[in-house]
Amino acid sequence: MTLRDPMTMERANLLNMAKLSIKGLIESALSFGRTLDSDYPPLQQFFVVMEHCLKHGLRVKKSFLGFNKSLWGPLELVEKLCPEAAEISASVRDLPGLKTPLGRARAWLRLALMQKRLADYLRLLITRKDLLSDFYENSALMLEEEGAVIVGLLVGLNVIDANLCVKGEDLDSQVGVIDFSMYLKNDIDDYRSEERNSQIASILDQKNYLSDSDSLSLYVSACMYVQLAIAKNNIIKLQEENQQLRSENSLILLKAQQHLEVAQGDVSVERDTYKQSRQGLDEMYNEARRQLKEECQLRQDVENELVVQVSMKQEMELAMKLLEKDIHEKQDTLIGLRHQLDEVKAINVEMYQKMQSSDEEMKKKNDVISRLEEKTNQITATMKQLEQRLQEAERHRTSAEEGTRRFKLDFANKADSLQRQIEHRERQLQQLETDLKIEREWRQTLQNDLDRERETVAQLSTEALQINGLKKEFHRLQDENIQLKTICEDQEQALEELGSKLSESKLKIEDIKEANKALQGGQVWLKDKEASHCKLCEKEFSISRRKHHCRNCGEIFCNSCSDNELPLPASPKPVRVCDTCHALLLQRCSSNPT
């Protein structure tokens, strides 16, 4: 028995889970006959399975915060491949509650499903394997043939209407765990839904003929009417089948053999097209044989199916009513889109008028610049004088720092030598005290040696006097040390005052440079046509996100990145500045309050 590649087994398992999830979602949605919302369990499990499929083989990227593994990177490529997906990406970036790349990817999947373009977007993505190789390993699901199979299965979701509230949902902290209990059900339901799957396939084939985006509204209405006709035909067929079910008990074995032959044909076709998924095809073959055995038992359950067919008839009638309601809603949305187009045209006319007024203001500013060139020459002369003074102050500062460093080294050496002498004297004093105690204990027994001990005591007294003299000298050295410390502190304070003066002079130079830059601001004023994104947050400008010039640096920002007003040297009145210039000007004002 040969060992298979673990990545191949993972791809086969994910493909089978995607088939079960998509099939169960379509069947449950058609049986419900209503618009799906975020709390619908099969829909939640579908998003979890798609998240696992997109994460398979994803490369881990290193950053200064650690390791980053997110599927938001490959999904952002869809915006470059398909311009229609730019609206979804912009909506995801503007959602206030999303803080992580994983939450943005989950929101993108939900918006693409509501737009019924999830299969189209992923088909464009898997065709560009040269771009996906930067995000996925070589044996990832998105780079292999299993990814194309899953994208083909996603086309069937276009018959489902989803109404998901992405703004209020916490997508960052959700745990993506697959619930296998939803798929452990009786396979008899699969047999009963074969005709329904063939009807859905016919609808999807009609959808492939409508590739032009301008005919999207015609396709929606036509699809709804086709579904109504199919529902009516199903009701008629169900009434005929109720009379023929008892006569079909003898033909079930023949049908089972036909299903087995069809399953074998499907296995041979998939073996030719998907050579790398042989184990998955073997499992499908075994499943077909198991279905054959189960269909042999259907003869006993035919009478129970009669009751089920009656209930299905009632559900189809309810589905017809809901489809008629959806047709009216689609027509209302088309009318609303036309009104929005008229409003956009009016806004474009206003923007053209404002652009003409801004051109006239630019001509006036060019005249002012010619008058201010003479003043800039005078300011450059004063700047040169200030720079010479700054260089002289820096030379004085370096010489003072060198003198203090030498003084500290000499003082430290002297203090260490005196400390060693004091420790030696203290050890001698302790030894003498111990000897004195021993002599006092043996005084009564050693009276004959009293004279000798008196001489030693006299010697000890002289040494004690010497120690007292050393202590006085130590106190004198401590006083000198304190005086030297005070002198050093005074010098350090003088250096700090000199540094503060230097910083003030540098701030004045920066203010003069900023004033010069403000006087020459007309030369670096960025044009509106040259900026398509905000320089700070890099968001794209649109009708709702307007362009604003910073009156300090001349760059173009959005409203949220330039919602500040401060007076500048060129204009005493408060004007609009960006966040970066606002923080820089406030820092200068706080360091130089005068």
UniProtKB/TrEMBL annotation:
InterPro entries documented for this protein: RUFY1-3 (IPR047335), Run_dom (IPR004012), Run_dom_sf (IPR037213), Znf_FYVE (IPR000306), Znf_FYVE-rel (IPR017455), Znf_FYVE_PHD (IPR011011), Znf_RING/FYVE/PHD (IPR013083)
Entry's Gene Ontology cellular component terms: cytoplasm
GO molecular function terms noted in the UniProt entry: zinc ion binding
Cited SMART domains: FYVE, RUN
Domain FYVE-type: 528-586
Keyword Cell membrane: no
Coiled-coil parts of chain: 285-515
PROSITE patterns linked: RUN, ZF_FYVE
Keyword Coiled coil assigned: yes
Any matching Pfam family: FYVE
UniProt keyword terms in alphabetical order: Coiled coil, Metal-binding, Zinc, Zinc-finger
RUN domain boundaries: 37-169
Protein name, entry field: RUN and FYVE domain containing 2
Annotated organism of origin: Seriola dumerili (Greater amberjack)
